[in-house]
Amino acid sequence: MADGQLDTVDALMARYAAGILPEPARVLVEAHLEMQSVNRSKVTAYETVVGDVLERMEPVSLTSRDEALRAIFSAAPLTTPDTAPVPPGNPFFPKAIRDFAGIDAAEIPWKRKLPGFKEYSLGTIDGCDVSFFWLKPGRVIPAHTHEGYELALVLDGAFNDTRGRFAKGDISVADESIDHRPIAEAKCPCISFSVSQAPVKLTGSWRQLLGDMIG
Questions:
Q1: How many domains, in total, are found in the chain?
Q2: 196 vs 80: which has the higher pLDDT
């Protein structure tokens, strides 16, 4: 990812079409496309033009990949079809994630991170920290920002933060410009697949942080 930045889900789709995502991020996008069709037309448009754009461009270094991405964005007319929201309650992971992790939802050996907050880490893969997270209904993640990008795909349930609501199949793209305090919705646990570049940096007051840690 050029300069370690991912500004929007559209940028993520363009990088996926161009084949320049780290493997865990590619898997995350594949899983998203299994769960929601809303971005398939965007990916198809990017894939249609990417070969022609790259053929017409002068050779560039890997640090100049954003030039190719800008060309792809400008050349691909995007449409977003209507799509129905994916309801919560399905405990099974998309095939892309099952194949990648070698495990399904019911088989995850969760480890307690905080009260009502569990994690299963796959370790560092292709330069990314890769984990599954489980939040009990109503659980708050302590306020934090990011020392790099974090991609989170909601696999079940939903959470809310200052940017809005992220439900099953949605991707959250966060970086150092985002300071948020995600809250799992009350209906069911929220399970997500996370791909991050660097550890989070806690923010907020000590009183709020202590309360959020205790849960």
A1: 2
A2: 196
